Amino acid sequence: MRILGIDPGLRRTGFGVIAVQGRQLEYIASGTIVVPTDASLSERLKVILDNVREVAAQHQPDHAAVEQVFVNTNPHSTLLLGQARGAALCALADQGLAVSEYTALQIKKNTVGKGHATKEQVQQLVQYLLRLNGTPAPDAADALACAICHAHHLPLTQQLQQQQPTVAKLTRIRGGRLHF
User: Residues that bind Mg(2+) 1, according to the entry (predicted)?
Assistant: First the structure.
């Protein structure tokens, strides 16, 4: 099974693709989509949309995971980051992928073991976990960490999805209330 991780950004959007076989993680590809800063906002968003769509089409992932937007002290920056993230989400939806979302804290805690890890610590742990010869670029490392986080959450997610039909059979809604 393949997982595509995305670390969205208006200047640089990282992507990382891993394969998961049981508990084994295998590096497939990663990189950084560099967006021209002199282009208009709509052109920059289109670059993100087109490139994420191309990465997804090329690597055919089964799952996608995207880092959630954090609220910055500058609301304008947060809004722009949200738009970049939206372009990436649209590209993934266009490829028919369901997307799981994780906060930076969840990703770092799941990958490094502590939620306030530095960029360098994330890079080093990603390099170690995927047995890479070199240290991945910061944005690519964050995207790979997002994919690794999803790989660790996947067994629980799959169990819940398998149990949903059973839960649905056991429950019914009557008068706006849930009854078992």
Answer: 7, 139
